[in-house]
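FAQ: What does a multi-protein file look like?

Like this. Sequence, then tokens, then the next protein.
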Amino acid sequence: MKSNMTPKEMLPKWIEQAGESKEAWVKWFKLRVASCLRRKNNSSTKEEWQKAILTALKNCKGRGYYSNYPLSLRHYRKWQDPMWPSVDHVEGPAKSRVVIETRLVNDMKTILDEKEFDMVIRHLNTVDKKQPLILEDDWRPRRSY
């Protein structure tokens, strides 16, 4: 992260374009960096985590990496909300390679390994035998955590 710029200045444009609060996203960003630093066997510095999370935020363009669900702090106000934006550690919790996804999908991916996750998604697509369905942007599970 460039030392002369604040996280607020470095956040991607999609945040404001989506009507999201930059202040809320800065708070989210700082909490996520702190959380990554606390993980066991962490081998990355604060600056590496900041860069990784900012890069993931820019690359996601406001959509979940796996699900393509819209990411929002305005619509989902609590971290317990299943649609809350979450940091997914692509190479395990010790390395600073991450993507941004909803908590629901990230938790499912955490429980399953990559092959199992792919198998479940493909299985659901195969056995459903209904017309393919694209969920609306405002879809969310009825129950929460």
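And here is the next protein:
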Amino acid sequence: MPPATAHILQPDNTLWWTSFESPIGRLHAFTTARGLCRILFRCSDAQALERLHQHATPTPERNDTGLHLTRLAILEFLAGQRARANVRLDLGNMRSCQQRVLEATRDIQRGSTATYGDIAQRIGLPGAAQAVGQALGHNPLPIVIPCHRVVAAQGDLGGFTGGRPAKIALLTLEGVPLPQSQPTLDFE
């Protein structure tokens, strides 16, 4: 299925958003004419708009109809019906190194994990695992760029922007075996 394009014909400086329920709670998707630029969760609509305002100048316009294909792609991805959430991404405001980290992370297959060091190797910066962790800590598109699949080399789950319960829930949804020291948690 081609990337969602219902919003592409709008002016370039417009920001649209939608929110919807998912297996890990309410998700908020924000997009520009170039593509999906931010996903927020673990917050209300009002909190998502307030958090986004800290990172964006245009006032977002709600567009549930225009972002229907984006919402569908994310939900099918979470349900395991797609290997990748095939939506256009807008990573234009990021440094080149962070874009490379996010692109390498997006290539981690469903049901598997990679370490921060693995990602550093993939982008040609061996020994930069900590820098990879920092870049992933600022991932504006968790879930679609599956930073929940990146774990620490010692077997620990590592961090996640949405919190450890969300990381555990996402990995569990994908059938990833958790380290013995990590309890399975329900995400609320």
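Q: Is there any per-entry metadata?
A: Some entries carry free-text notes. For the entry above: The first strand starts at residue 16 and ends at 22.
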